[in-house]
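Key idea: predict the complex, not the pieces.
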Amino acid sequence: MNITEFLVSCPLFDCFSQSELDALAQALMVERYPDGHVFMKEGQRGDALFLILDGKVSVTRLNRHNRKVEHLHTMTQGELFGLIALIDHGKRTATCTAASEVTAASLPVNAFELLYDSNAPIAYHFQYLIERQLAHDLRALNHALLDVLFSRKQKVPSMLHTVPREFDRPGGRL
Amino acid sequence: MDITTEQFRYRFKALAARIASKNDLEALVKNCSLSLIPAGTRIISYGEACSTLYLVWNGLLSASIEDGDIKLVLGAIQPGEWVGEVMLIEAGPATASVTCVEDSYLLELSHEAFNKLRASHPAAAGALLHALCLNIAERLRATSERVFEQIGDKEYRLQDMTPEKKATAVGHITRLLGMLLGIHRGK
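Result:
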């Protein structure tokens, strides 16, 4: 699979120029992962960003009350995960596991930081993606709590149990 | 009244700590305007568009949410804290109303002033956004952790609850909203 062509077709990277996409494509590492591969584990420090090129990735979280692992969401082609931890180096809020054979492009934190230092426009675009995602997440959680409070809904959607989200869906934000 | 970078650093420790360069901080302070807002003035209205970041220099602000006849006070915003950062990042309806409880000096950074800062000092604008985003990310992590553990998949049918249970549930959710918006209760 040609990673540059994939990036061009991905709405998440609409704001990137061709030369920026080329630089990003060079920094990304494309690999195939077996079904069941754990990309990131809840509670561990984040060390890479992943873009799904093909396959499915399941997002789960451990409920500490009943000790059950709860399935929150399934990600597919074109979705990005691990974005927030790149900037705040915080702990992962969910576990992401391959639910089929998966082809994904990864950007390790150190490669991201090199890119950030060497290519200011890419750095600004990533910062913009992160800022927008955080603003969306905060609004979505705020609205969900208000919906429950004002009896418009009875539940907080399970997708909002892990925000800032470890995942993002192109063109289909909450 | 002019504010120096040292005064800003002292007042807004948490924010300034994340803006390392003195030049960036200087540019930020220059693009903010300080205004005295009288007690009782509503600076942000819930649900309405607003795109200004307010940093509380002194005085006291209160945040609340209204829906029909219901009004919930989320808590206070004190000197050294700020409000309006989500709308500065992305224009949209306000997530709470904010009113000055006392005459308050507020440092204001409008969307226009922020765009000027972005054009003239992109590193300063980037550093400010980075600092605000880290703060939002921390609040989101902490709040969603609580939401997941305390609410989870539970169904809340407030209309069917006894008055006591309803009051507890409302208090519970109001605290989560305050936590999400970085607002303190009982101060």
